[in-house]
Structure formats: C-alpha cells, structure tokens
Design a protein that fits this description.
The protein is mostly helical. It has helices at residues 2-11, 13-41, 46-55, 59-70, 75-85, 88-97, 105-113, 117-129, 134-158, 172-184, 188-207, 212-229, 232-239. The protein folds into 2 domains: 2-173, no CATH class; 185-240, no CATH class.
Amino acid sequence: MRKQRLRSHTAHPIGRGAAAAWPICLGYIPIGLAFGVLAQKSGLSLFQIGSMSLLVFAGSAQFIAVSMIDAGASAAAIVATTFMVNLRHLLMSSSLAVYLMGKHRALLSVFAYGITDESYAVNLARFRAGSWTLGPALALNHTANAAWLLSTVAGGFGGRFIPAGAFGIDFALTAMFICLLVFQLRDLRSVVTAAVAGSAAVVLSILIPGNLYIVLAAVVAATAGVAVGRPAGRRKDDAR
C-alpha cells in the first residue's frame, strides 16, 4: 500500500520534479549556508540576503556581488560584472528552448527564472531521455530555488555566531566550481577546454584590468573545445 502511494506521488509532475531536485538541494544547502554567512559578514541584513537569493538566484553571481560590496565597488560595476558572469544562462536557456516549443510565454518566463547550472544539467538529461515535460521541470527548478533561499537566510542568521573567516567559508564558491569541473572531465575535449580556460584566464587577468578576462577566457576555451571535438575528416575538408 505504501509503495502504491509513493508511486502515485512521484507520478504527479510536482512529485517527479521534487524527487529529481533533491540531489541539487543537498548540494545547495552547504553552499547557501556559506553564502549567507559571507553576506552577513559583508553587512547585508537577513531581508537583503533573502531578497538577493529570491531575485537573483545565481550562486556565483551572488558570491561575486557580495565580495564586490565588501570591497566597496560601485553599483554599476557590480551589475556589469554579474551580468557578464550570468551570460551563460542565455546559452543554457536556448538549448532547453527546443524542448518547450509552443508553451505559454508566462510559464516559460517562470521556468527560465529557475535555471541554474545544476538544474539545467538535470533537466537537459531528462528532456533528452524523452520522459520529461515542463511541469516536472518547473517543480525541479523551484524546489531547488526554495532550498537555496532557505539555506542562504539560515546562513545569514547563523553568521552572527560565526567568526569571520572561520571554517574556510570564503573558499566555498571556489571549492564548488572545482567539484563541478572535476565531474565534467570525461574526455579529451573537456580536459583541453578546462586547461585552456584556466591558462587563458591567468594570462589575461595579468594583461587586462577588470573582469573582462573571464569572458575572453571562456570564448578562447570554447573555441579550443570546438576545434578538438571536430572529426579529423571534417577538419581536413574545412582546410581544403
């Protein structure tokens, strides 16, 4: 009887989406707590922390914004930097759009709001498998969103009891992206792309002031990845 209830629950679009989101939520909780602590140490109130998580909902952009706020950067610089960092969402949304043709624009807007690196990866894999629709995809996105919002506010509340710099919290974002990178290194193309991205970012950061080097390094790395991933026969044809 319990198994039948569980099956009927997970068969519902919201249940399916929430079930698929729990691994993302487990990853968001420690990062969200770390962000909340850092934001609190930078002078943000609980309301400001919750508002940023609700309105922005982008971990990397939020970490960057808080670090720039702490450094006294101008509002224009913060907006420009986070805009460039989040340009990848344009590409992610475009690749998911092919599975959502004909859907209402209001629903698509709500779905696009909830796209992150992690939810994108899960949704794309399930859309490709042919067993996914907009309903569970929306549930997945916003279950993850709720976990992120609650964890960041909890971190902001608990931050007042934690000394600044304790537990290596300031390294949380770097550690998260290192983990994401390691899990993406599955073939020669991904290894070459990662190596080129890292090398180009280091060199360009020395040559170019500001944060433009991040975007340029991404373009260089993507170009290298495309070149490595092309079949040898096609490269010969193009050379002719």
